[in-house]
Structure prediction request, 357 residues.
Amino acid sequence: MIEKLQQSTTHVEVESTTLLDFTMLDNPFGCGPHVSQLEGFLKNTKPEKHPQTSEAIFKKQISDWLSINSSMITLGIGSDELITNIPKAILQPDQAGIIITPTFYRLIEAVEQVGGNIIQITATPENQFACTPSLIEQILNTTQKANPALIWLCTPNNPTGVVFPLETIQYIAQNTEAILVVDEAYQEMIDPFNQSSAIQLLTSHRNIIVTKTLSKTFGLPKARVGIALSHPHIALALQKQRTKQLPNNSLLLAEEALLDIDWLVKTSQTITIERSFFDQAIKDLTQIKLGSDSQINVCILRHQTSNLHELLEKQGVITTDYNQNNGLEEMKFVRLGLRSRTENLMLIEVLQQIDST
Prediction:
């Protein structure tokens, strides 16, 4: 039970009037101390006194960080701009784009906006939405039949937190001529040094794009800095879709964030601990179950017989209702982003109360 899990942590009582928001999916611990200090300086100092930088300087820093050539880097106003621009650069109207669901809804919207033909391949709840051999076989069989221009993977996935292993990504890439886009918005949460990132495949596979963001693990959602990594000829096509440069202050914060690898490591370790703590608590419940084996702070869960979103809302806990999202239709899952230990304990208390009624 929860008492065994708490160890030295004080028991937290929850009242029905308490408002707990678990819809946020960014780093629950924010940005690192050096970034926070710079943020304060920029906020309280006149713009003319701010240090000046450029996208070229930031690209050089990314190049050093990930050991890739600067010509392989495309920047964006957040990952949303990159997600929007990738289909524009790759897809012609009526060309097929394969998307594995459930996943981030913007991937589907981006393909629809250019008139692409969306083919959804849905992971199953029976397998906890995992990357199984049968799912991989279905992806490749569909690829052979539909001849898609684009295949989109989100790993670690939002909302399930499921990870596609690097060897699986490589296997898919080498068995298709389509552009394989690997969205790694949460990669640093489980892999702060990017050792299992798809960037390891970029030099040997010309048909891979890896997208990253500084909004999640790096704790910089307001800076809105997105990164796409690909073969130079793809990077050039993506660059042609851009209409704006990143603001100077966003670049300054991003540069500082990339320097603080200690904060990334600490964040990854803490989130892993909190996720394990939460998973163990849910295993003790009888009516409420996790829907997948999430590797990050994002996860889905549901009540066996009731609408969990509504039950939590009555207790003052806000989650995201995923009952109508692609790949999760009518399954009554809610998505949540785990927070600090104190907040997670409060959530567990509420879930225990619901489970016992």
In short: The domain at 33-260 is CATH 3.40.640.10 (Aspartate Aminotransferase; domain 2). The radius of gyration is 21 Å.
